[in-house]
Amino acid sequence: MLPISDTPPPHSKPKTPEILDRKHSYFTAVKPYLSFHHRRTWFFLAVLLLQLLLLLSAPSLPFSLSAAGSSSPRPSPALHNLSFDNSATGEQNFRDGLFINEAINENCPYGKVYVYNLPPLFNTEIVKNCHNINPWSSRCDALSNSGFGKSADGISGIVPEKIAGAWFWTDQFSLEVIYHNRILNYRCRTLEPESATAFYIPFYTGLAVERFLFTKNSTTEERDRHCTMMLNWVSDQPFFNKSHGWDHFITVGRISWDFRRSKDEDWGSSCIYMPKMRNITRLLIEKNPWDYFDVAVPYPTGFHPSSVSDLKIWQDFVGNRQRSTLFCFAGATRGFIKNDFRGILLNQCYSEPGSCRVVDCGGSKCANGTSAILETFLDSDFCLQPRGDSFTRRSIFDCMVAGSVPVFFWHRTAYLQYEWFLPGEPESYSVFIDRNEVKNGTSIKSVLEKISKEKVKRMREKVIEYIPKIIYSNSIHGLEGIGDAFDVAVEGFLRRVKEQEGGYKWK
Ligand SMILES: *[C@@H]1O[C@H](CO)[C@@H](O)[C@H](O)[C@H]1NC(C)=O
Ligand SMILES: *[C@@H]1O[C@H](CO)[C@@H](O)[C@H](O)[C@H]1NC(C)=O
Ligand SMILES: *[C@@H]1O[C@H](CO)[C@@H](O)[C@H](O)[C@H]1NC(C)=O
Ligand SMILES: *[C@@H]1O[C@H](CO)[C@@H](O)[C@H](O)[C@H]1NC(C)=O
Ligand SMILES: *[C@@H]1O[C@H](CO)[C@@H](O)[C@H](O)[C@H]1NC(C)=O
Ligand SMILES: *[C@@H]1O[C@H](CO)[C@@H](O)[C@H](O)[C@H]1NC(C)=O
């Protein structure tokens, strides 16, 4: 089992040096802006209500309230279409002897999702109490704007002016709020559970437990309470009973290891080990690769385009960028334990100032904004992605969104995590260097220098091609005709349910 006690608290004050390189959101703005937040909340509620009314009055109407609107919704060749399997549509249109409106069904070959109406204590009330989600600082800014956080106004000098509005100070742990808001407007959502293929339980699994993870004297009962209550609630639902839960899913904005406590004295909640959780699929930012019911989805980054044209502008921008540095490393520079692998990378980076750039996250640099990190990724051909406190880091996605090619040292950092979202051939978009070779003195610079300019170009093109799949768009219906990370994740789960045909076959 993993060194679970290593797991990072978010937004913790750096009490020990080791905490400095935690899974701390690079893009997190921590200062509370209360009036701002409340205005946002009301605006958001108003928009939500309007959308709900529209949805109820015209469920099949393809409307879009996205502010920017997509002036050119035609996907560029670099963009992926959603992988619709047309062979399934025929069967979908004819059910129970009735033809179902084709306009509703044509884009949902894998079926539709029913969203449970959970008691607010499992979601909206948690966000309402955003001041108290963790013991150190308010999370109100981070959870504002449907989970995207505050607008990244300080970034306009770095990104093209036209799409500065697509950047936010998004917190890496806000996945649950982002998915919940998106799924309420999902084109394949159904309001009738009888017609659903899958069932979404909008429980804020990570946010509910965060406070108790980082309170020293919290009891195991406190850490398990919300999850237990949610499971009791959902297991009373007829559709859960019917399927034993195998067609149900939740989102988890933290790593799987925070929910796998097996002994009372250990770290975390035991949520995932609870018997009633057994058949429920979890979409989380880091999975246990050996658990079929864990599915890893991309960490939220700060980039949330609201139209295909904004996405295209960004892809062109990172594709044409002149990159002056061979590679870079963003992380804390102080307090590494002597033989920590990250320390070796830092030393190599510092000793090659002409080829490598370090972003020191030790101070407040990374906590208060993306500028320094984004700029470094934009200027580098490669970015080093060692494992951190856990196997994955948000930085993988920050790097790729900037069109920089990731360099991995552990297979579990990305290859065994995000299979639905990244190219099948690791060497097409990334470099793998065995960590033992690095420990034995192999120079990263010499490895990367040997890769031909042509090959670097091809890898970068592959990274850029996959940007849509690793971002969460800021449009209530997603990006027209293109699957973003949300679409890929939910469609992937629907497809799984269809493939299992009546239940996962436990051996
Ligand atoms: C996307 O779909 C359109 C129309 O179905 C097709 O013309 C286009 O080639 C597809 N693009 C990709 C990248 O598959
Ligand atoms: C934990 O400690 C805090 C302050 O020391 C106290 O207020 C709280 O009641 C304690 N909680 C438990 C469960 O003991
Ligand atoms: C679940 O289904 C069983 C029969 O399959 C039934 O006996 C039981 O009452 C059901 N429970 C609920 C909560 O619906
Ligand atoms: C999980 O599914 C299996 C059948 O696939 C069933 O036997 C088992 O009872 C289910 N577990 C729960 C907790 O519903
Ligand atoms: C971030 O910190 C720098 C100084 O470290 C400060 O000048 C800047 O205003 C801060 N930005 C935000 C958004 O807090
Ligand atoms: C690293 O060096 C050790 C001995 O110093 C050797 O046993 C090991 O095979 C080397 N590993 C690699 C990957 O070169």
Give a written overview of the molecule.
It is a single-pass type II membrane protein. This is Exostosin GT47 domain-containing protein. Belongs to the glycosyltransferase 47 family. It comes from Rehmannia glutinosa. InterPro entries: Exostosin, Exostosin_GT47. This protein has 507 residues and is of the alpha/beta class. It folds into 2 domains: 311 residues, no CATH class; 163 residues, Rossmann fold (3-Layer(aba) Sandwich). The protein contains 17 helices and 13 strands. A 6-stranded parallel beta sheet has the order 4-3-5-6-7-8. Strand 1 and strand 2 form a beta hairpin. Helix 7 runs antiparallel to helix 8. 46% of the residues are buried. The protein binds 2-acetamido-2-deoxy-beta-D-glucopyranose (6 copies). The site of one 2-acetamido-2-deoxy-beta-D-glucopyranose (NAG) has 5 residues, from loops.
Q: Summarize this, please?
A:
The chain has helices at 34-57, 89-93, 102-105, 124-128, 140-143, 175-183, 205-213, 220-235, 238-243, 308-320, 341-350, 371-378, 395-401, 435-439, 444-449, 453-465, 485-500, and strands at 94-95, 98-99, 113-115, 189-190, 198-200, 248-255, 281-286, 294-296, 325-331, 356-360, 380-385, 405-408, 431-432. With 507 residues, it is α/β, with parallel strands linked by helices. The radius of gyration is 22 Å and the shape is globular.
Radius of gyration in whole Å, from Cα? 22 Å
Largest sheet: 6 strands, parallel
Order of helices and strands: HHEEHEHHHEEHHHEEEHEHEHEHEEHHHH
What structural class should be given to the helix and strand makeup? alpha/beta
Protein name: Exostosin GT47 domain-containing protein
Transmembrane segments: 42-65
Main location: Golgi
Subcellular location: Golgi apparatus membrane
